[in-house]
Amino acid sequence: MIEFNPYAYEIHEDPYPIYARLRSEAPVYRNEELDFWALARHADVLAAFKDVKRFSNRFGVSIDPSSYGPHARIGTSFLAMDPPEHTRMRGLVSRSFTPRRVREMEPRIRAIAVQRLDRLVGAGSFDVIGEFAGKLPMDVISEMLGVPEADRDELRTWADLLVHREEGMMDVPREGAAAFRKILDYFTELIAERRKKPGGDLLSALLEPACAEDRLTDKELLGFCNLMIVAGNETTTKLIANALYWLDRTPTQRARIASGQATKSQWVEETLRFDNSTQMLVRTLAEDVPLGGTTLEKGGRALLLVGSANRDERVFPRADEYDLTRDCTRMLSFGQGTHFCLGASLARLEGAVSLDEWWKRFPDYHVDLDGVVRVHSVNVRGFAKLPVRV
């Protein structure tokens, strides 16, 4: 019987063979030591995403002890809510993420990408994360929230500390917990400033008395800001870098981009399916759930293996091939149902614009594999360093 431990960071080099064995051996995997069930097949993960009554978010979406349960010390905003509380809070913030609003952001996102990339022309070599992929998403989110440019590098450092784990670490480390408190302290001050002197940013809009009959509390605002800075930044950073990495490793797909047979949006979509940033999310079982001859008991934890579902051959033929012309409409990288990712349209736009502007300048780039460093995280897959030659 295969042993699956999400804290065994060596699997982050390539977890997909392990996922394949999990999908083939049984519909449900049980880890007694860490006390969770794992769902690896596309149909089961999709059904769990849609079933908010039995698969609850109320205790959070991370298996980390500090982030899970009714007394979690590391908050996750409305991700850790079920309807109707989730519905209420999502409704208050969602108007800034409508497809129309996101489309209107394209010129500014493109301008940021141009500014960041033009500085790198002629550099010869550099780290994609440190110079571009880690900068652009933070710029976009920070402009939305009204964070001054001078504060963004520090915020990104705190966000990195919050998701990073050293080998053998099975919870948010002391440095990560301290970084979380710094993020909350920072936005507590920023909220106070915006109350005195509102601007044209999203944070100011959420503080306006007329923005809705029901307003967010300070605690809810802080949770939302933390979510934006961490989840809204980290996942898009990983998306951009993963896309560059896999195209360089797959010459046939690189040729499709070069010839125009595949679009930058297709490049984004297949990367999201093939090697997505968020590999797994936890749910709490609100009822007994029969599945595959086993009963997932009420009160237990179900780990939804998104990365595995996206490689399920039942849905994606030749699933282990990186193919930019593939139909990715059934991928689950942004979830499904009530908790479908609020920032999905924004992440897709940032990815497509970033890759478009990158390709205009660096079509002949190559990844320096000897210098690649992966992130150690229980659920985030991507790079801490991705050196390239251009």
Descriptive notes:
The protein is an alpha+beta fold and 390 residues long. The chain contains 15 helices and twelve strands. A five-stranded mixed sheet has the order 1-2-8-5-3, with helices on both faces. The chain has a three-stranded antiparallel sheet with strand order 4-12-9. Helix 8 (152-163) crosses helix 11 (218-249). The longest helix has 32 residues, at 218-249. It starts with 15 loop residues before the first helix and ends with a strand.
What is the rounded distance between the termini?
45 Å
Under CATH, the topology is which? Answer: Cytochrome p450
How many β-strands, per DSSP?
A: 12
The appropriate CATH architecture is Orthogonal Bundle
Count of discrete structural domains: 1
Summarize the structure.
The chain has 390 residues and is an alpha+beta fold. The protein is built from 15 helices and twelve strands.
What are its keywords?
single chain, 390 residues, alpha+beta, Cytochrome p450, 5-stranded mixed β-sheet, 3-stranded antiparallel β-sheet, 46% helix
